[in-house]
Protein backbone atom coordinates (compact mmCIF):
# COMPACT_ATOMS: atom_id res chain seq x y z
CA UNK A 1 0.00 0.00 0.00
CA UNK A 2 1.41 3.41 -0.89
CA UNK A 3 1.85 6.11 1.70
CA UNK A 4 -0.89 8.30 0.19
CA UNK A 5 -3.44 5.50 0.27
CA UNK A 6 -2.33 4.61 3.79
CA UNK A 7 -2.98 8.15 5.05
CA UNK A 8 -6.32 8.48 3.25
CA UNK A 9 -7.68 5.30 4.76
CA UNK A 10 -10.85 5.98 6.78
CA UNK A 11 -10.51 4.11 10.08
CA UNK A 12 -13.53 5.55 11.92
CA UNK A 13 -16.84 6.38 10.24
CA UNK A 14 -19.73 7.67 12.36
CA UNK A 15 -23.10 8.09 10.64
CA UNK A 16 -26.20 9.66 12.23
CA UNK A 17 -25.24 8.46 15.72
CA UNK A 18 -27.88 9.04 18.43
CA UNK A 19 -28.44 7.70 21.94
CA UNK A 20 -31.27 8.53 24.33
CA UNK A 21 -31.48 7.99 28.09
CA UNK A 22 -34.26 8.21 30.63
CA UNK A 23 -33.99 10.45 33.71
CA UNK A 24 -35.95 8.03 35.91
CA UNK A 25 -34.75 4.47 36.71
CA UNK A 26 -38.22 2.83 37.02
CA UNK A 27 -39.43 4.39 33.77
CA UNK A 28 -36.17 3.40 32.09
CA UNK A 29 -36.61 -0.25 33.13
CA UNK A 30 -40.22 -0.24 31.89
CA UNK A 31 -39.17 1.21 28.52
CA UNK A 32 -36.43 -1.44 28.35
CA UNK A 33 -38.95 -4.26 28.83
CA UNK A 34 -41.28 -2.77 26.18
CA UNK A 35 -38.40 -2.43 23.70
CA UNK A 36 -37.32 -6.02 24.40
CA UNK A 37 -40.82 -7.35 23.71
CA UNK A 38 -41.05 -5.24 20.55
CA UNK A 39 -37.70 -6.62 19.40
CA UNK A 40 -38.77 -10.25 20.01
CA UNK A 41 -41.97 -9.67 18.02
CA UNK A 42 -39.88 -8.27 15.17
CA UNK A 43 -41.23 -4.72 15.46
CA UNK A 44 -39.11 -1.61 15.09
CA UNK A 45 -37.88 0.31 18.14
CA UNK A 46 -39.63 3.61 18.90
CA UNK A 47 -37.08 6.31 17.96
CA UNK A 48 -39.08 9.30 19.20
CA UNK A 49 -38.56 10.69 22.70
CA UNK A 50 -40.95 9.35 25.32
CA UNK A 51 -41.80 10.96 28.66
CA UNK A 52 -38.66 11.61 30.82
CA UNK A 53 -36.28 10.72 27.96
CA UNK A 54 -33.61 12.99 26.46
CA UNK A 55 -30.99 12.71 23.71
CA UNK A 56 -27.54 12.28 25.26
CA UNK A 57 -26.10 12.12 21.72
CA UNK A 58 -28.02 13.29 18.65
CA UNK A 59 -27.10 12.92 14.96
CA UNK A 60 -23.29 12.91 15.19
CA UNK A 61 -21.41 12.36 11.92
CA UNK A 62 -17.68 12.32 11.16
CA UNK A 63 -14.89 10.44 9.38
CA UNK A 64 -11.40 9.96 10.80
CA UNK A 65 -8.45 8.85 8.69
CA UNK A 66 -5.11 7.38 9.62
CA UNK A 67 -2.79 10.20 10.70
CA UNK A 68 -5.64 12.43 11.94
CA UNK A 69 -6.44 13.47 15.50
CA UNK A 70 -10.02 14.48 16.30
CA UNK A 71 -10.56 16.69 19.35
CA UNK A 72 -13.86 16.09 21.10
CA UNK A 73 -14.67 19.05 23.36
CA UNK A 74 -17.65 20.41 25.26
CA UNK A 75 -18.69 21.25 28.79
CA UNK A 76 -19.82 18.62 31.32
CA UNK A 77 -23.03 16.94 30.17
CA UNK A 78 -22.42 17.74 26.49
CA UNK A 79 -22.47 14.02 25.54
CA UNK A 80 -18.75 13.34 25.09
CA UNK A 81 -18.58 10.33 27.46
CA UNK A 82 -21.69 8.73 25.94
CA UNK A 83 -20.24 9.12 22.44
CA UNK A 84 -16.95 7.56 23.57
CA UNK A 85 -18.73 4.59 25.13
CA UNK A 86 -20.60 3.99 21.86
CA UNK A 87 -17.34 4.22 19.88
CA UNK A 88 -15.68 1.79 22.27
CA UNK A 89 -18.58 -0.68 22.02
CA UNK A 90 -19.62 -0.36 25.69
CA UNK A 91 -23.16 0.75 24.81
CA UNK A 92 -25.27 0.48 21.65
CA UNK A 93 -26.70 3.51 19.84
CA UNK A 94 -30.43 3.96 19.29
CA UNK A 95 -29.84 5.33 15.80
CA UNK A 96 -26.99 5.41 13.31
CA UNK A 97 -23.90 3.27 13.04
CA UNK A 98 -20.17 3.23 13.76
CA UNK A 99 -17.63 1.54 11.49
CA UNK A 100 -14.12 1.10 12.92
CA UNK A 101 -11.32 -0.69 11.08
CA UNK A 102 -8.42 -2.38 12.86
CA UNK A 103 -7.43 -2.60 16.51
CA UNK A 104 -8.85 -0.10 19.01
CA UNK A 105 -7.00 1.04 22.11
CA UNK A 106 -9.06 3.02 24.61
CA UNK A 107 -8.22 5.08 27.68
CA UNK A 108 -11.74 6.03 28.64
CA UNK A 109 -11.89 5.82 32.42
CA UNK A 110 -9.18 5.54 35.02
CA UNK A 111 -8.34 1.86 35.41
CA UNK A 112 -11.11 0.76 33.04
CA UNK A 113 -10.17 -2.53 31.41
CA UNK A 114 -7.94 -3.57 34.31
CA UNK A 115 -8.76 -6.51 36.56
CA UNK A 116 -7.96 -5.13 40.04
CA UNK A 117 -6.95 -8.44 41.59
CA UNK A 118 -4.49 -9.27 38.81
CA UNK A 119 -0.97 -7.86 38.70
CA UNK A 120 0.13 -5.16 36.26
CA UNK A 121 1.97 -7.79 34.20
CA UNK A 122 -1.12 -10.04 33.96
CA UNK A 123 -3.24 -7.04 32.97
CA UNK A 124 -0.84 -6.22 30.13
CA UNK A 125 -1.38 -9.72 28.72
CA UNK A 126 -5.16 -9.42 29.20
CA UNK A 127 -5.34 -6.06 27.43
CA UNK A 128 -3.08 -7.23 24.63
CA UNK A 129 -5.24 -10.30 24.07
CA UNK A 130 -8.40 -8.15 23.93
CA UNK A 131 -6.69 -6.01 21.27
CA UNK A 132 -6.05 -9.18 19.27
CA UNK A 133 -2.33 -9.68 19.91
CA UNK A 134 -0.79 -13.13 20.33
CA UNK A 135 1.19 -13.98 23.47
CA UNK A 136 4.38 -13.90 21.40
CA UNK A 137 3.59 -10.35 20.16
CA UNK A 138 2.88 -9.19 23.72
CA UNK A 139 6.12 -10.83 24.95
CA UNK A 140 8.07 -8.73 22.44
CA UNK A 141 6.47 -5.48 23.73
CA UNK A 142 6.32 -6.31 27.46
CA UNK A 143 9.61 -4.77 28.63
CA UNK A 144 8.98 -1.60 26.58
CA UNK A 145 5.53 -1.20 28.16
CA UNK A 146 6.84 -1.73 31.71
CA UNK A 147 9.71 0.70 31.16
CA UNK A 148 7.44 3.35 29.62
CA UNK A 149 5.01 3.08 32.54
CA UNK A 150 7.96 3.40 34.99
CA UNK A 151 6.53 0.48 36.99
CA UNK A 152 9.45 -1.96 37.07
CA UNK A 153 9.26 -2.32 40.88
CA UNK A 154 5.47 -2.67 41.01
CA UNK A 155 4.59 -4.64 37.88
CA UNK A 156 3.84 -7.85 39.82
CA UNK A 157 1.68 -6.07 42.42
CA UNK A 158 -2.14 -6.25 42.12
CA UNK A 159 -3.49 -3.24 40.22
CA UNK A 160 -5.99 -2.54 43.04
CA UNK A 161 -3.04 -1.24 45.08
CA UNK A 162 -1.86 1.15 42.33
CA UNK A 163 -2.24 4.91 42.74
CA UNK A 164 -4.29 6.80 40.13
CA UNK A 165 -1.06 8.00 38.49
CA UNK A 166 0.29 4.44 38.24
CA UNK A 167 -2.95 3.26 36.60
CA UNK A 168 -2.75 6.08 34.04
CA UNK A 169 0.88 5.26 33.25
CA UNK A 170 0.11 1.57 32.76
CA UNK A 171 -3.07 2.24 30.75
CA UNK A 172 -1.35 4.68 28.41
CA UNK A 173 1.73 2.47 28.04
CA UNK A 174 -0.42 -0.52 26.98
CA UNK A 175 -2.64 1.54 24.65
CA UNK A 176 0.23 3.37 22.94
CA UNK A 177 2.94 0.70 22.79
CA UNK A 178 0.53 -1.83 21.29
CA UNK A 179 0.27 0.64 18.36
CA UNK A 180 -3.49 0.29 17.73
CA UNK A 181 -5.08 1.54 14.51
CA UNK A 182 -7.49 3.69 16.52
CA UNK A 183 -6.60 5.24 19.90
CA UNK A 184 -9.29 6.82 22.10
CA UNK A 185 -7.96 9.04 24.90
CA UNK A 186 -10.28 10.56 27.49
CA UNK A 187 -9.43 13.11 30.21
CA UNK A 188 -7.22 10.52 31.98
CA UNK A 189 -4.01 12.31 30.97
CA UNK A 190 -4.98 15.13 33.34
CA UNK A 191 -4.14 12.78 36.25
CA UNK A 192 -0.54 12.15 35.19
CA UNK A 193 2.36 14.31 36.38
CA UNK A 194 3.80 16.86 33.93
CA UNK A 195 6.87 14.76 33.06
CA UNK A 196 4.72 11.79 32.10
CA UNK A 197 2.22 13.93 30.16
CA UNK A 198 5.07 15.36 28.06
CA UNK A 199 6.33 11.81 27.45
CA UNK A 200 2.80 10.84 26.34
CA UNK A 201 2.69 13.74 23.85
CA UNK A 202 6.03 12.67 22.39
CA UNK A 203 4.70 9.12 21.98
CA UNK A 204 1.46 10.39 20.40
CA UNK A 205 3.54 12.45 17.93
CA UNK A 206 5.42 9.27 17.00
CA UNK A 207 2.39 7.00 16.54
CA UNK A 208 -0.03 9.53 15.00
CA UNK A 209 1.12 9.01 11.37
CA UNK A 210 0.06 5.34 11.69
CA UNK A 211 -3.00 5.81 13.92
CA UNK A 212 -6.32 7.66 14.09
CA UNK A 213 -6.74 9.36 17.49
CA UNK A 214 -9.89 10.60 19.23
CA UNK A 215 -8.82 12.95 22.03
CA UNK A 216 -11.24 14.22 24.69
CA UNK A 217 -10.10 16.98 27.03
CA UNK A 218 -11.16 20.10 28.92
CA UNK A 219 -7.63 21.46 28.44
CA UNK A 220 -7.78 23.65 25.34
CA UNK A 221 -3.97 24.09 25.15
CA UNK A 222 -3.69 20.27 24.94
CA UNK A 223 -6.42 20.14 22.27
CA UNK A 224 -4.74 22.86 20.20
CA UNK A 225 -1.39 21.06 20.60
CA UNK A 226 -2.68 17.72 19.29
CA UNK A 227 -5.75 17.99 17.10
CA UNK A 228 -6.14 18.77 13.39
CA UNK A 229 -9.93 18.52 13.41
CA UNK A 230 -12.55 19.07 16.08
CA UNK A 231 -16.13 18.47 17.22
CA UNK A 232 -17.60 20.85 19.81
CA UNK A 233 -20.57 19.16 21.49
CA UNK A 234 -23.42 20.87 23.29
CA UNK A 235 -26.46 19.03 24.71
CA UNK A 236 -25.67 15.95 22.63
CA UNK A 237 -25.36 17.76 19.28
CA UNK A 238 -22.36 18.94 17.27
CA UNK A 239 -22.42 22.70 17.80
CA UNK A 240 -19.38 23.08 15.55
CA UNK A 241 -17.12 20.69 13.66
CA UNK A 242 -14.37 20.91 11.11
CA UNK A 243 -10.67 21.67 10.79
CA UNK A 244 -10.81 25.17 12.32
CA UNK A 245 -9.68 24.06 15.80
CA UNK A 246 -9.09 27.66 16.86
CA UNK A 247 -12.70 28.71 16.13
CA UNK A 248 -14.11 25.76 18.11
CA UNK A 249 -11.90 26.66 21.08
CA UNK A 250 -13.15 30.27 20.92
CA UNK A 251 -16.76 29.02 20.96
CA UNK A 252 -15.94 26.71 23.89
CA UNK A 253 -14.41 29.58 25.88
CA UNK A 254 -17.33 31.90 25.06
CA UNK A 255 -19.50 29.67 27.25
CA UNK A 256 -17.51 30.93 30.25
CA UNK A 257 -18.21 34.60 29.69
CA UNK A 258 -21.77 34.42 31.00
CA UNK A 259 -20.41 33.18 34.35
CA UNK A 260 -17.56 35.56 34.92
CA UNK A 261 -18.40 37.21 38.24
CA UNK A 262 -15.61 38.40 40.52
CA UNK A 263 -14.61 36.36 43.52
CA UNK A 264 -13.31 38.04 46.71
CA UNK A 265 -10.72 35.69 48.18
CA UNK A 266 -9.71 37.74 51.23
CA UNK A 267 -10.57 41.04 52.89
CA UNK A 268 -9.98 42.64 56.26
CA UNK A 269 -12.57 45.32 55.31
CA UNK A 270 -10.01 48.15 55.06
CA UNK A 271 -9.94 48.02 51.23
CA UNK A 272 -12.75 47.53 48.71
CA UNK A 273 -12.41 47.41 44.90
CA UNK A 274 -15.05 49.78 43.56
CA UNK A 275 -14.25 49.70 39.85
CA UNK A 276 -11.90 47.91 37.41
CA UNK A 277 -11.62 48.84 33.73
CA UNK A 278 -9.32 49.20 30.73
CA UNK A 279 -8.89 52.77 29.53
CA UNK A 280 -10.51 53.49 26.16
CA UNK A 281 -12.17 50.08 25.86
CA UNK A 282 -15.72 48.89 26.41
CA UNK A 283 -16.56 45.39 27.58
CA UNK A 284 -18.92 42.80 26.12
CA UNK A 285 -20.31 40.12 28.47
CA UNK A 286 -17.85 41.36 31.12
CA UNK A 287 -14.87 40.77 28.79
CA UNK A 288 -12.42 43.33 27.36
CA UNK A 289 -11.07 42.47 23.90
CA UNK A 290 -7.37 43.29 23.45
CA UNK A 291 -5.23 42.83 20.34
CA UNK A 292 -2.09 40.72 20.68
CA UNK A 293 0.97 42.91 21.30
CA UNK A 294 -1.15 45.92 22.30
CA UNK A 295 -0.26 48.17 25.25
CA UNK A 296 -3.14 48.92 27.62
CA UNK A 297 -3.83 50.96 30.75
CA UNK A 298 -5.61 49.13 33.57
CA UNK A 299 -7.62 51.29 35.98
CA UNK A 300 -8.56 50.23 39.49
CA UNK A 301 -10.56 52.42 41.88
CA UNK A 302 -10.51 51.38 45.55
CA UNK A 303 -12.19 52.67 48.68
CA UNK A 304 -10.10 52.60 51.88
CA UNK A 305 -10.97 52.84 55.56
CA UNK A 306 -8.72 53.17 58.64
CA UNK A 307 -5.46 53.19 56.64
CA UNK A 308 -2.70 55.78 57.01
CA UNK A 309 -0.78 55.07 53.79
CA UNK A 310 -1.65 54.09 50.21
CA UNK A 311 -1.80 50.29 49.64
CA UNK A 312 0.72 48.53 47.38
CA UNK A 313 -1.00 46.84 44.42
CA UNK A 314 0.05 43.60 42.73
CA UNK A 315 -1.67 41.79 39.84
CA UNK A 316 -1.64 38.16 38.67
CA UNK A 317 -2.82 36.72 35.35
CA UNK A 318 -4.60 33.34 35.15
CA UNK A 319 -5.72 31.42 32.06
CA UNK A 320 -9.12 29.72 31.69
CA UNK A 321 -7.74 26.53 33.30
CA UNK A 322 -6.94 28.77 36.32
CA UNK A 323 -3.21 28.28 35.92
CA UNK A 324 -1.11 31.27 36.91
CA UNK A 325 0.78 32.53 33.84
CA UNK A 326 2.15 35.95 34.90
CA UNK A 327 2.65 38.33 37.84
CA UNK A 328 2.84 42.12 37.90
CA UNK A 329 4.49 44.24 40.57
CA UNK A 330 3.92 47.67 38.99
CA UNK A 331 6.82 50.05 39.51
CA UNK A 332 6.28 53.67 40.52
CA UNK A 333 4.42 52.80 43.75
CA UNK A 334 5.23 54.39 47.09
CA UNK A 335 3.55 52.78 50.08
CA UNK A 336 4.76 55.63 52.33
CA UNK A 337 2.41 58.12 50.62
CA UNK A 338 -0.25 59.44 53.01
CA UNK A 339 -3.93 59.01 52.14
CA UNK A 340 -5.70 62.24 51.21
CA UNK A 341 -9.03 60.81 49.99
CA UNK A 342 -10.79 57.55 50.90
CA UNK A 343 -11.07 56.81 47.14
CA UNK A 344 -7.84 56.05 45.27
CA UNK A 345 -7.46 55.29 41.53
CA UNK A 346 -4.49 53.38 40.13
CA UNK A 347 -3.65 53.67 36.42
CA UNK A 348 -1.26 50.84 35.51
CA UNK A 349 0.35 50.64 32.09
CA UNK A 350 0.85 47.13 30.73
CA UNK A 351 3.16 47.25 27.72
CA UNK A 352 3.12 44.96 24.68
CA UNK A 353 0.74 42.22 25.79
CA UNK A 354 2.23 39.07 24.27
CA UNK A 355 -0.09 36.58 25.94
CA UNK A 356 -1.25 34.01 23.38
CA UNK A 357 -4.82 33.96 22.06
CA UNK A 358 -7.52 33.20 24.63
CA UNK A 359 -9.24 34.40 27.78
CA UNK A 360 -7.39 35.54 30.90
CA UNK A 361 -8.49 36.68 34.35
CA UNK A 362 -6.60 39.30 36.36
CA UNK A 363 -6.39 38.95 40.14
CA UNK A 364 -6.04 42.21 42.11
CA UNK A 365 -4.29 42.33 45.50
CA UNK A 366 -3.80 45.34 47.79
CA UNK A 367 -1.24 45.05 50.61
CA UNK A 368 0.50 47.23 53.21
CA UNK A 369 3.73 46.80 51.22
CA UNK A 370 5.12 44.50 48.57
CA UNK A 371 4.65 40.85 49.62
CA UNK A 372 3.36 41.42 53.14
CA UNK A 373 0.19 42.11 55.12
CA UNK A 374 -2.53 41.75 52.48
CA UNK A 375 -5.64 43.88 52.94
CA UNK A 376 -7.73 42.64 50.03
CA UNK A 377 -7.58 40.10 47.19
CA UNK A 378 -10.09 39.48 44.41
CA UNK A 379 -10.04 36.97 41.52
CA UNK A 380 -11.44 37.96 38.11
CA UNK A 381 -11.18 41.68 38.84
CA UNK A 382 -10.83 41.96 35.06
CA UNK A 383 -11.29 39.46 32.24
CA UNK A 384 -9.54 40.02 28.92
CA UNK A 385 -9.64 38.21 25.59
CA UNK A 386 -6.47 38.31 23.52
CA UNK A 387 -7.29 38.48 19.81
CA UNK A 388 -4.92 36.74 17.37
CA UNK A 389 -5.37 34.49 14.33
CA UNK A 390 -3.09 31.73 15.68
CA UNK A 391 -4.15 29.34 18.47
CA UNK A 392 -1.07 27.95 20.23
CA UNK A 393 -0.38 25.60 23.13
CA UNK A 394 1.77 27.82 25.34
CA UNK A 395 0.76 30.91 27.34
CA UNK A 396 2.95 33.42 25.48
CA UNK A 397 3.39 34.25 21.80
CA UNK A 398 6.52 36.39 21.68
CA UNK A 399 7.13 38.98 18.97
CA UNK A 400 9.94 37.75 16.72
CA UNK A 401 11.15 37.83 13.13
CA UNK A 402 13.90 36.39 10.95
CA UNK A 403 16.62 39.02 10.37
CA UNK A 404 19.15 36.72 8.72
CA UNK A 405 18.88 33.50 6.73
CA UNK A 406 21.74 31.68 5.07
CA UNK A 407 20.94 28.81 2.77
From TrEMBL:
Pfam family, one: ABC_tran
Molecular function in Gene Ontology: ATP binding
PROSITE patterns for the chain: ABC_TRANSPORTER_1 (PS00211), ABC_TRANSPORTER_2 (PS50893)
Keyword ATP-binding: yes
Domain ABC transporter residue range list: 40-260
InterPro entries: AAA+_ATPase, ABC_transporter-like_ATP-bd, ABC_transporter-like_CS, ABC_transpr_TagH-like, Bact_Polysacc_Export_ATP-bd, P-loop_NTPase
Keyword GTP-binding: no
Keyword vocabulary terms for this entry: ATP-binding, Nucleotide-binding, Transport
PANTHER family documented for this protein: TEICHOIC ACIDS EXPORT ATP-BINDING PROTEIN TAGH
Family assignment from sequence similarity: Belongs to the ABC transporter superfamily.
Record-given protein name: ABC transporter ATP-binding protein
Provenance organism: Gaetbulibacter jejuensis
Higher taxonomy: Bacteria, Pseudomonadati, Bacteroidota, Flavobacteriia, Flavobacteriales
